[in-house]
Structures are given as C-alpha cells and as structure tokens.
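To make this tangible, this section ends with a sequence with its structure tokens:
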Amino acid sequence: MEHSPDAAARQARHDLALGREGPVPDILRSLEHDAGVAVVVARLAEGGPAGAYTVERGRPFILLNSSEPVVRQRFTLAHEFGHHCLHHGDMLDERIAWDATDPKEAAANAFAAEFLVPVAALNLWFEAHVPATIDLGVLVRLANDFGVSCEAALWRSKAAGRVSSPDADRLKARLDSREHWGLRRDLGLGPIVDTLASIQAMPVRVPEAMVGNVLEAVKAGVVDPEVAAERLRISVQQVGVLAERRDSADG
C-alpha cells in the first residue's frame, strides 16, 4: 500500500469495497469483518486516551474510547486505522487534534479525513445538493450524511475548494460558539446509525472474534458461563443470549 495518506486511504476504501463516492456506513464492522483489525471499545475514565493502535501476536488491535461522541469515535477509529495502513507501529493517542504537527499524527489525520470523506464523494454531495452558499445548515447536513463532526465537514469542504479560507474561518468561529447546536434536530435529520452508536451503553465491547471464541469454548464445555461473562465483561444472562443467537445463526 502506498504511503501517501490520501492514496493509502483511497486504496483502503477500494480493498474494503467501500468505493469512493459515498460515506462509510459502518466503520467498525468494515474494519473487523473486512480489514481483519480487532476493535476494543471501552468507556475510559475522564482524561483517558482517545484511541490506540498495537499489534499482538501478529493481530492488529485498536482501542477506542467510547466516552467521546460517536462522530469523534468514527474519526478516531479511522485515524488509528491510518496508523495501521501507514505502518506506523504502536501508537497511543491521548487526543486527536486537527493541528497535529507530529508527522505520523498528521498523516493519520489526513488518512482518516480522506477515508471518511473522500474529496470525490464530497464533490458529488455538493453537486447533488447545490447549496447557494455554505452555511451552518449545509455543514450540519454534510456532517450528518458522512457521520463526521461539523468541524471535519468544514475542513474537508475547504480541502475540496468548496469554501474559501476567510469563509472557513468565519464558520469555524461560529462552530466554536456552538451556534450549530440543535440544528440537526431543527433540520429533521436522524441519528447516525452504525455499530458504534448501538453499543454506547456498553462499558466494554470486545472484538467479535473474541466473543465467538469464548462462546465456542462455552459450548464445548471448556469454559463456564461465569468465566465467559467475566472475560467478555457482560452478565451471565447476556452470555446465554449471545450463545442462543449464535446457535440460531449457525442453524
């Protein structure tokens, strides 16, 4: 895979059959099912890292902090996937900042931006919506459609030449003042629907492959349901429910 962040992001989307003309509908599922990257999602204590990337026994792992809003989680997950695709080695990100100066962090940001909001897809979006001007309402719609923050939508619009630097600065000031809060509701836009949004209530979500291995061990009688519940950070009752679902799916 090429080491240019933008090129690497486009190649990754191609490899995951995501194309270049639309949003990533469910990034966690794409990474686990199609990219072979295990993702642990945990609600970390205040001040905990936004995310991390490592390789254990030849298997890539991403840790994601679910205490942050879903749109930030999606960008952080794409950022950590960027570390993976760009061969950066083990990384611990206390926070993800747009103005990162560290070369690896800046590259992972560029990867994440193109992975989640490709310039080609963004241009198609603008051609379909044809806004007379880019205001906060347009940014909110764009952000909602691509599952990113309004700030990310703004900087991608600027990168694509859809908004000038002076206008971008003015819009950024309005975002900083939180003038866009409540606009998604006022515009009648629905919530982001993906796996990350559906697991917000879970203290810890372990990779699906790990869940499958533990449930197989329970079925074989190698591991007791109580031990399985402890390893998966869920209740014994939930272990039973997952086991039943797995048996139904296999049947």
